[in-house]
Fold this sequence. Notes:
The chain is α/β, with parallel strands linked by helices. 30% of the residues lie in helices and 25% in strands. It has a 10-stranded mixed sheet, sandwiched between helices. A 6-stranded parallel sheet has the order 3-2-1-4-5-6, with helices on both faces. Helix 11 runs parallel beside helix 12.
Amino acid sequence: xxxxxxxxxxxxxxxxxxxxxxxxxxxxxxxxxxxxxxxxxxxxxxxxxxxxxxxxxxxxxxxxxxxxxxxxxxxxxxxxxxxxxxxxxxxxxxxxxxxxxxxxxxxxxxxxxxxxxxxxxxxxxxxxxxxxxxxxxxxxxxxxxxxxxxxxxxxxxxxxxxxxxxxxxxxxxxxxxxxxxxxxxxxxxxxxxxxxxxxxxxxxxxxxxxxxxxxxxxxxxxxxxxxxxxxxxxxxxxxxxxxxxxxxxxxxxxxxxxxxxxxxxxxxxxxxxxxxxxxxxxxxxxxxxxxxxxxxxxxxxxxxxxxxxxxxxxxxxxxxxxxxxxxxxxxxxxxxxxxxxxxxxxxxxxxxxxxxxxxxxxxxxxxxxxxxxxxxxxxxxxxxxxxxxxxxxxxxxxxxxxxxxxxxxxxxxxxxxxxxxxxxxxxxxxxxxxxxxxxxxxxxxxxxxxxxxxxxxxxxxxxxxxx
Length: 467
């Protein structure tokens, strides 16, 4: 039970008192000091006591301040009344919290004073109704933009992403509003078009997140991260392979919306190639040499903690040897092929799992659009069924949504027979347990995910789906 003093004058103060009387469900007691009858609300509640006198008079206000108020609220219409009342209160009580409605841009050095600028409050409410403007909480927490509401547009790179697959550093998705219902987030929850995300975090970070969510195609590697990463082990890699992966990494970085390319060198051999790679170091290409650690995966895991990495670039040999460890880092892996990055013509999807394809679809369209690749979906029907399935319908819908054509190839013949020798394609592969656990018996399977290695000559993007 708290006692609160309200100094009130004017029409705004009257509306404030009416709102408090209607909405207050606490056990608070209110003393209201007013000096013009027009300030009084028509209805008076039992827990309100009204006292009529001029609060700018110290002699009149002083006796009232001995009641040990929990809080004082000043809502008056004249500047001189606001400043005089505030000074009178501070003469008596240095510690009581004062909330002052300000129309005049007042400034006080007082840690126990909360100034609410009426012009800022009103203008911010108007701004909230503008389209494509972040909505931040004004009356919750610090009110500094650390709580933000973001609607996810249909073409966003965040659509069809699991919450666990979204890099959340210095911010969090705290709740999701969907179809007028509140959903508490869980790692496996998938974001849908027009979801409203309630986010909490550093205000500057949230501004960047807002821009990223609102943008449509052209965001990858977001939302996994903002930069690319390339590991060079000069002791175990052939110079030819080093040149190839560095060249492909540079081209990929130049083509897509990555903030920075990180090239990490371990086990350096002092050579012309070593100096050449170091020479790439610049504002947007970060080349670092580790002279002490010799284990590639250990270095990668440490670097992932320090940088906002959204894509790791590897050779086929490195991917095969470290597949399980790469699976566990839960970010996309871009495995280079044999044909040269600049020769890639088509994006290829072979998976037959509807759930997996939904998880990948936004990345497929985003990256294909950035790399200017045609998209081909191979609808493998081993039973010879020609009916349109859910995967085809899903991609046709996304094709209209993103305004990017998708070629649907339905056939009962295994597409791997046609594609196995092609080096000019980028295959999108769901990076799940079936890929990791694939073994020699997989050659007898018709599961496209288990047979990913059949296209090892091609470029492949492994997108994490397991949580």
